[in-house]
Specification:
138 residues; alpha+beta; Immunoglobulin-like; four-stranded antiparallel beta sheet; 1 helix; 16% helix; elongated
Length: 138
């Protein structure tokens, strides 16, 4: 009798936890460059969050099932939830991604374009530096 009572109590504690885990769906965001190689320095961020989530340096992916906002609220990923995420990396253009959660297989691959920072030194003007005066003497 005691054993049956303990088992029912234990099951009563475990089942709600399993139901809560079943409601949280993982989302994986993989960040790659134009050739399909992972970008190990990429970060993923929800617009309402302060912190950025860094991707795995080996595969360029970030996986989560819940986000924690600065005001203490949680966003648990569930089917039908529409998420907007900012994906960025040094040397690449930031991309905003919108994704609607499904019941399973929630994976987004984001391809970041490099920043075109080519400088043509022939077209640059020489800077004028005034030393000690705002206006040059006439």
């Amino acid at each position: 009798m005691r054993l049956a009572r303990r088992l029912s109590l234990l099951l009563g504690l475990l089942l709600p936890a399993q139901e809560a885990l079943a409601n949280d769906l993982p989302l994986t965001v993989a960040v790659v460059d134009a050739e399909g190689a992972p970008i190990p320095t990429a970060a993923v961020r929800h617009p309402d969050e302060r912190d950025r989530h860094h991707v795995n340096a080996r595969n360029g992916a970030w996986t989560a099932s819940v986000l924690y906002l600065p005001d203490g609220t949680e966003i648990a990923f569930a089917p039908g939830l529409v998420l907007t995420l900012d994906v960025s990396a040094p040397g690449y253009q930031t991309q905003k991604v919108t994704y609607a959660m499904r019941k399973r297989r929630n994976r987004v691959t984001v391809t970041l374009a490099p920043i075109d920072a080519k400088l043509d030194l022939d077209e640059m003007e020489e800077p004028v530096i005034h030393m000690g005066r705002d206006v040059p003497l006439e």
